[in-house]
Amino acid sequence: MNDRQPIAAVQQFFANPVRLLAPMEGLSDPLMRQILTQIAHDLGRPYDWSVSEFIRVTQHLLPAHVFYKYVPELHNDAKTACGTPIHIQLLGSDPHLMAENAAYACELGAPAIDINFGCPAKSVNNHRGGSVLLDEPTVLYEIISAVRQAVPAHIPVSAKIRLGYTDTSKMDDIRGAIADSGADWLTIHARTKTQGYKPPAYWDKIQSFNTLAIPVIANGEIWTAEQAQSCMQQSGTAHLMLGRGAVTRPDLIARIDTSNNLDQDNTANILSWQALIPHQIDFLHGEAKNDIVLIGRYKQWLAMLTKGYSEAQALWQDIKREKDKATIIHALKNSTHG
């Protein structure tokens, strides 16, 4: 068992239940992080931090521009415009290279390093990255411990996993590897790689990881405040990472933390479609390679918003084939009735 003492930053982070915005490849890019963290901040319940999309480590030390591409917030003290910290997530299978890149990320200003052992994508797993490493708990240990030793002692190192690769048969070995590795906390997506994103999430299986001497964060299939409460009860942890649910309902974080508070006016934490429109316009005015890319990204978000807002369903039908940004913004401004 690793006997490393918790660093002060970790104790401070977890003094209260934490709420994190998840890393989602191709979705929670810098622009989406900026919008979602701003909404949460404006609603009075900001995210404690967000985690970047994974940066893949393969054969060499990555140049600075790669880190800045994925995490431009490094130019702003590794924070979004509203002040939400961004932790850098790395993905790879070579302990030495992972350690080397993690140390460099810290030199560039990363406040924490997260290691991805959860990505289910075939293109990643086929190159021995992400969740496929859950079948090799010894490699998990080697990567995390190498990174922990390489980065400055005051900077936290965390890991994100699933319950297993094809099944949960290695959960005990995975837990042991994490325990010995020196990780400062662990985030668990409560499904195996094979289960992908198909409901349900098996929150109760997170319970067995609560024997670890580090904080555990639950993730997976949290779309509503009610599901968040069930997740916390079944998993035995008060700490949550919000992913697709936070994209479909950007006010989810505020709803969760007021749902059990009868003394608080919960309606103040409900983001109406009308209130969401300016944030969508900000998104459409965001930085991107070109308008074609930006419009494609916006349509991706709008399609997800249809799960949370009836007005989004009507707007989607109006603009799903539209290619002109000004026309889309005009339709958006006039979409107040679903």
Largest sheet: 8 strands, parallel, barrel
Number of strands: 9
Can you tell me the overall shape? globular
Q: Give unreliable regions as ranges.
A: none
Tally of helical runs: 14
Q: Strand order, biggest sheet? A: 1-2-4-5-6-7-8-9
Round the Cα radius of gyration to an integer and report it. 20 Å
Seen as an oligomer or otherwise, the chain set is: single chain
Question: Mean of residue pLDDT?
Answer: 93
Cα distance, first to last residue?
A: 56 Å
Give a short synopsis of this structure.
The protein is built from 14 helices and nine strands.
Set out the fold topology:
Blueprint: H1 8-13, E1 19-21, H2 30-42, E2 49-51, E3 55-56, H3 64-70, E4 86-91, H4 95-107, E5 113-117, H5 122-125, H6 137-150, E6 157-162, H7 171-181, E7 185-189, E8 216-219, H8 225-235, E9 239-242, H9 244-248, H10 252-256, H11 273-284, H12 291-305, H13 310-319, H14 325-333
Parallel strand pairs: 1-2, 1-9, 2-4, 3-4, 4-5, 5-6, 6-7, 7-8, 8-9
Verbal overview:
The chain has about 350 residues and is of the alpha/beta class. About 40% of the residues lie in helices and about 10% in strands. It is built from 14 helices and 9 strands. An 8-stranded parallel beta barrel has the order 1-2-4-5-6-7-8-9, surrounded by 4 helices. Strand 3, helix 3 and strand 4 form a beta-alpha-beta unit. Helix 2 packs antiparallel against helix 11, helix 4 runs parallel beside helix 6 and helix 12 packs antiparallel against helix 13. It is globular. The mean pLDDT is about 95.
